[in-house]
């Protein structure tokens, strides 16, 4: 995983137990079905075969056998393969391959509850609330409303509207909630954006009514 516009680190997982000299190895990284991302040709970095979008964006850390991909973008998501060949009696022989999948993460804004309310609240009337969060990636899983009063908390999961920016590929999400105005009791309403098992959740500032 890498944050948007940060450096992504892709590991070759090459133990080099034989302590082979880099000058006897050809190392290249490919993306998907064959775009060449980086190539080290018997100790020298070689740029002839690189896909144009990776030129001047990659560095290889030979001590850790890790490729650094600078300024990682959403278009860089996907599967990468590291292939190492050893110069053996003149003809190169593949001695190691490994694969890794790059996922890009962009932080969503803190969810914010909008309350287009004017005038005083009357009990048993309806409240129309909306909750929004923007500028994130990947697509979130769910937006949940938490309505707490006294010792009970009610969870509601209405429909979530998702839009994706055509250029940046970042997502904006909104959820709407209609509830009756609570009577004679303080009610806190929060909105929770669930991003996925490994990314966790973001929660809004609670609205007290």
TrEMBL record:
One of its GO terms (cellular component) is external side of plasma membrane. Keywords: Cell membrane, Disulfide bond, Glycoprotein, Immunoglobulin domain, Membrane, Receptor, Signal, Transmembrane, Transmembrane helix. InterPro entries: CD80_C2-set, Ig-like_dom, Ig-like_dom_sf, Ig-like_fold, T-cell_Activation_Regulation. It is a single-pass type I membrane protein. It is found in: Cell membrane. It comes from the Eukaryota. Its main location: membrane. Residues 1-98, 111-191 form the Ig-like domain. This is CD86 protein. It comes from Haliaeetus albicilla (White-tailed sea-eagle). The gene is Cd86.
């Amino acid at each position: 995983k890498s944050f948007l516009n940060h450096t992504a680190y892709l590991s070759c997982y090459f133990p080099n137990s034989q302590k082979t000299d880099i000058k006897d190895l050809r190392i290249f990284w490919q993306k998907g079905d064959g775009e060449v991302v980086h190539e080290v040709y018997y100790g020298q970095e070689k740029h002839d075969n690189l896909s144009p979008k990776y030129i001047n964006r990659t560095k290889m850390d030979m001590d850790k056998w890790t490729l650094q991909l600078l300024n990682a973008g959403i278009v860089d998501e996907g599967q990468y393969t590291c292939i190492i060949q050893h110069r053996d009696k003149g003809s190169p022989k593949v001695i190691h391959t490994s694969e890794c999948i790059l996922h890009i993460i962009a932080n969503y804004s803190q969810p914010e509850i909008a309350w287009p309310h004017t005038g005083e609240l009357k009990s048993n009337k309806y409240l129309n609330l909306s909750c929004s969060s923007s500028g994130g990636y990947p697509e979130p899983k769910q937006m949940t409303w938490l309505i707490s009063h006294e010792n009970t908390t009610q969870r509601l999961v209405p429909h979530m509207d998702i839009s994706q920016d055509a250029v940046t590929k970042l997502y904006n999400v909104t959820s709407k909630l209609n509830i009756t105005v609570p009577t004679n009791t303080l009610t806190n309403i929060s909105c929770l954006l669930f991003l996925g098992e490994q990314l966790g959740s973001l929660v809004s500032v609670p609205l007290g009514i």
